[in-house]
Amino acid sequence: MRVGFVVGEFPLLSETFVANQMAGLLARGFDIEVVCDRTKGDDRIDRQSEPMATLLARTQHWWRWAAGLSKFVRRLPPRLRYKASTALDAVFARRLNRCDVIVAHFGQNGERAAALKKWKVLKPPVITIFHGADVAIPARQAVLSTQYAGLIKHGTLNLPVNDYFRTMLLEAGLSQSSTTVHHMGIDSLEIGYRWESWEGTQLVVTTVCRLVEKKGVEFALRALASLKASHPEIDWRYDIIGDGPLRMDLERLALELGLTGRVTFLGSLPHAEVKQRLRKAHLFLLPSITASDGDMEGIPVALMEAMAAGLIAVSTYHSGIPELIEDHETGLLAPERDVSLLAGKLAWAAEHPAECERIALAARRKVEEDFNADALNERFAQIVIQLAAQGFAPEPARHVGVAGGLADPSSAG
C-alpha cells in the first residue's frame, strides 16, 4: 500500500512527529512518497541512517523540475498566486494519484490537496492532520471556515491532535463523522524513567523549547521571581534550553527581576546534552499561553518526554495540555498568565517531594498508555487501510528519484 505525504518542508527537526509517523508506516510494510515545497539542510538531522535515508530517497519537490517557479509565484497577488499554485499543483498531481491515500500534515496542506479534489484532479482520499497554529490562528481571525472551505466539502478525514482543536473545527463546519482526535506520541521505551528526590538539595527546574511567545517563558521567569520573594528558603536554579526571537528580551527580563545567578540561558544544545541535562533536572516548566496572534500549542511533545523521564511537569490549562496533564495527578497546572498561582504550584512541588514521586509515576503511566507512539502509529495504519479499502484504485507506480528544491531553505508555510 502506498501513502503520499504532503508537507511544507521536510525534514524539520522541530517536526520530528511527521517523520516518526512516516517511519511507523514504513515499519508496517507501507510504501511512502513525500511531496513538499522545500527541503531543509539541517546538520542536526542524520540523513544517512534509517529510516531517514529511505524517506529522503522518496521525497521530491511538489513541482519537480518547475520548482524554481515557486519564488516567482510567491510574489504574485493573493488571488493570482492561488490560481497559479493550484494550476502547477494540478500539473504535477499525477505522482500523488499513484498513492492509495494522501496524508497532509497541517491544515494548509490539506486545503491544498482539497483544491485538487474540487477540480477532480486528485483521486485518493485525503487525511489532514491539524497541529496548532493551523487551527488556532485562523480561529482567532474568524476565518477558519473560509480558510478550510475545501476541506469541509472534499476532505475525507480530519485528525486534530487534541479535542480542543476538534471543537474549533466542528464549529467551523467540519462534520462530526469526518473529524476525530488523533494524538501525536513518543517512544517511551527510548526514555528511561528516573526519579530522584530534591529533598535537602537544590531544586533544578528546566525548560526545553523554542523561545517564542506561546511557550510562556516570560511567565516562568515572573513566577520564579515571585517564588524567590515569597519563599527565600527554597534553593533552586532554572536552566532554559533553546533559542528563538525572544531570547534577548527574556534575558533582559531575568536581569530586571533580579534572577541573575539563578537563571541560565543555555541556547540550543545537541540532543545528547539535552537528555543529559534532563536527567539531572527535577521539574519541567512550560507555562504555555495563547500568543497575541492566536497561536497555540497542540500537546507539546516536550511535556510527554519530560513526564516519561520522571520529571514533574508544571504547565497551564492551555489548548490540549489538560488532555495530557491532570492537576496534582500527573503534573501541576495553573491558569494561563497567572503568575501568583504558577508560583504557588512551584512552591508546592518544592515543599512536597515525597508526594511528587506519586505524580511522577502516574505521569509515566499516562504517557505509556495514551501517548505511546507505536500504538498510535498502529491505529493510524488501520485508519489508512480502512480508507484505502473503500475502493479507490491508484494509478500504476513508477520509481521517483531523490528530492529537489534544495535552493529554498525558508521555513514551511
TrEMBL record:
Keywords: Glycosyltransferase, Transferase. This is Glycosyltransferase. Pfam families: Glyco_transf_4, Glycos_transf_1. Residues 15-187 form the Glycosyltransferase subfamily 4-like N-terminal domain. The keyword Ubl conjugation does not apply. It comes from Mesorhizobium caraganae. GO terms for molecular function: glycosyltransferase activity. Residues 199-365 form the Glycosyl transferase family domain. InterPro entries: Glyco_trans_1, Glyco_trans_4-like_N, Glycosyltransferase_grp1. It is an enzyme of class 2 (transferase). The keyword Membrane does not apply. Transmembrane segments: none annotated. Its EC number is 2.4.-.-.
